[in-house]
Amino acid sequence: METTASPRTLKTIVAASMAGTVVEWYEFFLYATAASLVFGAFFFPATGSPLDGVIAAFVTYAVGFIARPLGGIVFGQIGDRLGRKPTLQATIIIVGAATFLMGCLPGFASVGYWAPALLVALRFIQGFALGGEWGGAVLLVAEQSPDRSRGFWASWPQAAVPVGNLLATLVLLVSSWVMAPEAFLSWGWRIAFWLSAVIVLVGFYIRTRVSEAPIFIEAKAQAEGEQRADYGVGQVLKRYPGGVLKAMGLRFAENIFYYIVVSFTIVYLKEVHNYDTAQLLLALLVAHVVHFLVIPQIGRLSDRVGRKPVYLIGAVLAATWAFFAFPLFDTLNPPLIVLAVTIGLVFHAFMYAPQPAIMAELFPTRMRYSGVSLGSQVVSIVAGSLAPILATAWLKDYHSWLPVAVYIVIACVVTLVAVVSLRETKGISLEAVDQADALRDARSATPSVAR
């Protein structure tokens, strides 16, 4: 059976994967930006310190990360059993509905503590669906990519993430330009959330135009023919715990570093320097464009020189970022601020671009969705969800960026250990991964047969 798609079909698959990913990450990062700029004052009571409201908003933001592993478990199970396509169609609708309803919520001044309670409930639903999105989106591409260029093709869904963030930033930027600050804080921020309904419909339609990967169809038919049920989270933890741990280690620094760059940067410049909101969003806009452009090229580099060297470069560079970025922020020079944020996202891309290919190559097809989703999403509870909360709390307590810099270094050391433990998988065949899994099955069954 031909397991890779033709170039034309592969481009369609990439477009479908990216379309949905843009939608879902537009909505997820819209929340992150709004939490930094709006939600602290709108959904929570005043305490006398603006950072208290920001921390409270980031705590609700963290709820989405807590829900993501649950979504990864549930949708990973569904994706391994029924298919990647129907799972991705379900997740995009759920995320879209939750985000649209966020734009309809009343504030603390209107309904008191019901406001943050409703926000938390919708945030949980949003995170739950997103937990099943990432694994399916990258596998839809990775499982149909040529072995020699999987890093390049599978990096395109990753490139959709800055596009989604870019759109969220652009909508908020335009809103902040055309509205008075009072109007933006009162109701203008809602427009960006309501626009998600239109984007969701477009993404859902595009995802109806693709089919499952032949390698998945073959694995599914084989499992049904043999009446096997050895797929899903339980099996991947039983058979590939090392793969899950390595995936978590890879994700740890990348996840922390990203949310420091795109979320805590806003808090730092806004609260420490009272930096102009429009200028701040413009800096992020430029950085997201560069991030989008470099991710596929770094994915291509991982096909040439290997997954491990590229990832190692990213982890080492990320460890250095805070020590020059925050001094650049303190200059309040707009070009230098743009440069610092942009460099941060370029460093991040060295870890982010090869990630889908590496994770897809860690697990066999019959449990790949569960393995990838579990490895990538569970760690977000202690990584991305806590990063802006801890960083903001340290800023409040120590009035310094130095604890944040040390935090990033420690995270990068964890990821470096995970990268070193990997075997190089550049150019490996996913069929070979399945064959190795089948051979492992046969060897484990031999003792019982002998008895």
UniProtKB/TrEMBL annotation:
Subcellular location(s) per record: Cell membrane
Tell me, in one coarse class, where this protein mainly resides: membrane
Positions of transmembrane segments: 28-48, 54-78, 90-115, 121-142, 163-181, 187-206, 248-268, 280-298, 310-329, 335-353, 374-395, 401-422
InterPro entries this protein is in? MFS (IPR011701), MFS_dom (IPR020846), MFS_sugar_transport-like (IPR005828), MFS_trans_sf (IPR036259), Sugar_transporter_CS (IPR005829)
Provide the leader sequence positions.
none
Q: Output the Gene Ontology terms for molecular function.
A: transmembrane transporter activity
The way it spans or sits in the membrane comes to: Multi-pass membrane protein
Give all residue intervals belonging to the Major facilitator superfamily (MFS) profile domain: 13-426
Keywords for the protein's UniProt record, in alphabetical order: Cell membrane, Membrane, Transmembrane, Transmembrane helix, Transport
Q: Which GO terms describe its cellular component?
A: plasma membrane
Protein name per UniProt: MHS family MFS transporter
Organism of origin is: Leifsonia shinshuensis
